[in-house]
Amino acid sequence: MNSVRIFSFLILIIFFMVTPVKAKDMILKEPPQSLSKYYPPKSKEPKWIKQMHKMSTHFGGIFVNLKEKDFENVDKHADKLVEEYQKTSEMVPEWEDYFDIKAAEEFAIAAKTHDIAKAGKASGKLGKTCGKCHAEQEVAVWTKFHWPSFHKIKVTDPISEKEMAFDDYMSKVSSSFKGVTVNFGEGQYNRSAKALKTFKSQFMELKSTCSKCHTTNDVKRFYVGKEADTAFTALANELNSEKPNPRKFWENIGLLGKTGCKHCHLTHRTYSFIQKTWKQVKE
């Protein structure tokens, strides 16, 4: 087996050692309060994730430089990894059991032999400490600190002109949508057309809401863009025709649901559910 294949094989093993996330290990408990001081607004920058990147860089740097036979930088990365690992282990007291300083030191010693096979073998114990923390905490940390909370967003309903919480507004949008589909299914096309105007107004108002986070032109209208405009126009045409075509009506309802509602929910809703659950537990 040549050196390239050996290196590739070791990296593959290391990857699975460092990130052994399994269903039975997954935990979604809210992260400890002590972690909050390493993220905005308490910190000007996300210090915790920066520590993760530092350790990852030094860990990967060891193997990159071993492959390139740059042993001077291997030694530098080995020393820095132990230093940053030690520093990180002291940042969140509740998580001290995730760290094994001895494993980090043993890995550094193995790396300094400049034998890639020895380094790969010694990395296993260290990788398991990282993997255990990732399996139990990574999703929760990303949910709390890296994903914007919808529960802080206020929306002005274009129909009532009242400001309301985002969840309450989405309930109104859902009710308007049902007014369109239920009335159409009953053959009440005039009522469905009236409900469509309300639904469109509330749905397209989300453009301004999405723009609070999605600031670029392409992303602003990702869920409420050209396809949504086309679907609303087609729906209005059907409902105002002498004999609406059910197939065309439901096709365009499906287009709105797929390109707008579903895509947004797939992207945002799971995180929102978790955040809401944590909030309810506190209350």
Roughly how much helix do the residues carry, as a percent range? 55-70%
Low-confidence spans: 1-23
CATH architecture of the largest domain: Up-down Bundle
Strand order within the widest beta sheet = 1-2
Residue-averaged pLDDT, rounded? 87
Sketch the topology as an H/E string, one letter per element. HHHHHEEHHHHHH
Category by helix and strand content: mainly alpha
Instruction: Tell me the number of helical segments per DSSP (H or I, 4 or more residues long).
Output: 11
What is the subunit arrangement here? single chain
Rg, rounded, reads 27 Å
Keywords, separated by commas or semicolons:
Four Helix Bundle (Hemerythrin (Met), subunit A), mainly alpha, disordered N terminus, two-stranded antiparallel ribbon, 2 strands, 69% helix, 283 residues
Question: Describe it for me?
Answer:
With 283 residues, the chain is mostly helical. Helix content is 69%, strand content 2%. Strands 1-2 form a two-stranded antiparallel ribbon. The termini are far apart. Mean pLDDT is 87; it is low at 1-23.
How are the elements arranged and paired?
Elements: H1 3-18, H2 47-67, H3 71-89, H4 101-111, H5 116-146, E1 154-156, E2 163-165, H6 166-185, H7 189-204, H8 206-210, H9 217-220, H10 226-239, H11 246-282
Antiparallel strand pairs: 1-2
